[in-house]
Amino acid sequence: MSRESAPARGARSHRATTGSRWRAWLRHHRAMGQDSARRLLRHPLGSLLTMLAIAIALVLPAGLWLALDGARLLDAELDESATLTVYLAPRVEAAEAARIEQALAARPGVAETRLITAAEGMAEFQQALGLEDALTRLPGNPLPASIVVHPVETAPAVVRDLAEGLKAVAGVEEVRLDLAWLERLRHLAELGRRVTLGLAVLFGLGVLLVVGNTIRLAVENRRQEIEVVTLIGATHPFVRRPFLYSGAWFGLGGGLLAWGLLTLGSDWLAAPVSALAASYGASFSLPRLGPAGSAMLLACSTLLGWLGAWIAVSRHLAQIRPR
Amino acid sequence: MIAFEHVGKRYGGRYDALAHLDFRVRRGEMVFLTGHSGAGKSSLLRLIMRLERPSRGRILVAGHDIDRLHHSQVPFYRRQIGVVFQDHQLLFDRSIYHNVALPLEIQGVEPREAARRVRAALDKVGLLHREKALPIELSGGEQQRVGIARAVVNKPALLLADEPTGNLDPQLSADIMRLFEDFHRIGTTVMIASHDLALIARLRHRMLRLHEGRLVADEEAA
Description:
The complex is a heterodimer of chains A (323) and B (222). By secondary structure, chain A is of the alpha+beta class. Chain A contains eleven helices and four strands, in the order H-H-H-E-H-E-H-H-E-H-E-H-H-H-H. Chain A folds into two domains: 180 residues, no CATH class; 96 residues, Alpha-Beta Plaits (2-Layer Sandwich), CATH 3.30.70.3040. A four-stranded antiparallel beta sheet of chain A has the order 2-3-1-4. In chain A, helix 3 packs antiparallel against helix 8. The longest helix of chain A is centred in the C-terminal third of the chain and has 44 residues. Chain B is of the alpha/beta class. Chain B folds into two domains: 147 residues, Rossmann fold, CATH 3.40.50; 64 residues, no CATH class. Chain B has a six-stranded mixed beta sheet, with helices on both faces. In chain B, strands 2-1-4-5 form a four-stranded antiparallel beta sheet, with helices on one face. In chain B, helix 3 packs across helix 4, helix 3 runs parallel beside helix 5 and helix 4 crosses helix 5. Chain B starts with a strand and ends with a strand. Classes of the chains: A alpha+beta (323), B alpha/beta (222). The interface between A and B is medium-sized, with 30 and 28 residues.
């Protein structure tokens, strides 16, 4: 288009290079990032409440995930303690018991054995139950000798086969397999994992709704502005950008609050949890969000905020048509 | 610059807002669009801005059939057109400067270059000294001049105005029209919808008269 006033200037403005377009894009991102943060800060209480709603939605699945992470560590520990207890017949003498132990140790699939004589068994029993007085009054030692067997492989089927084999050995009265409760624990852990995943999906949707609703109101408040910029040639990404930044800021704020709540919560629960674990003779403490976990939480919350805003704005942009 | 070929616009399947429109506007021409309220002036402008699409016929702007623009191209098409509204459509939460800078911001013009162009546009409408003011602090006539500055800041080839003097007294209206004539003089194609016949009769430009959606008169400048 020729301009009598300033033809050279007009020509130059039409020759937008890729570099300058890229710089303009970055400039707008920076401007919108700052502008949307300022808008959030202009209504601190409202913004805080939205972030808190997001944080609460995030804390429950994140906390459960942490607890499960702890349970997985415990599970690994338990795996090593998958042992068989072989009870010998009461009439088997100490020397005979030692011979049987050696025979068991030599079997394939057995990693390690430990003989607990009748006397040792009694001593352990007394110590554990504090029934010294009552037990000394018994006429003899009612406990049989036993052998603790550590299998090489801890897979339930293998251990069960091994137990069958051990039962056939002469002098063995009973083989106890402590697998049932271990399996139960594993099922519980699997249940926990699925519940956590389900909750994470549900509460993630909750975050989308919270952000989406907030952004919907923001879009409604700036309707005239959207109409005007659309009239003078703004593209959809341009119109969407400030709202996407708002959503991301809400998400990030919510994520930071959730992080704080989780840290406070695990501090608060740490003492009773380790006391409880100690009473079972285990050392278990609530795992904490490490740097990777924290980064993951913040990334997820920011992404959810952004996505919630995207859905809300896109739905609205289709409805807003300049008058 | 603009060509309407057998254009019709029908709303709701029955009501013809515009029918049988056939006319051309040459590049650099200044044209008034007149008629009573409801004659179809705004609908016609909305068609050119591609806020609406014709039910029949085709509209060529700068040689392109604008109905065939992909919706992703529409924003870039609109950037070639400056639009002035009766109610100015200024954003009341930002200064005069930032209102005028808006089209440049959308186009990603370098801030220093944008500042130069915004000041040039404000200078042209005589409001350079008010650049830091908010729209609410300005009179109706001044707000309209800000609207014009925003419409011309990116030097559009085509300038459209929908009742730009609708709310102004005769003296201010004449001032506003003089501004449009200035842009016409430097080569911009200008199309102004107005029902202020007394005013536009004095200005001696081509006049397209609409009545009930039809073009009833096309009077060349006397």
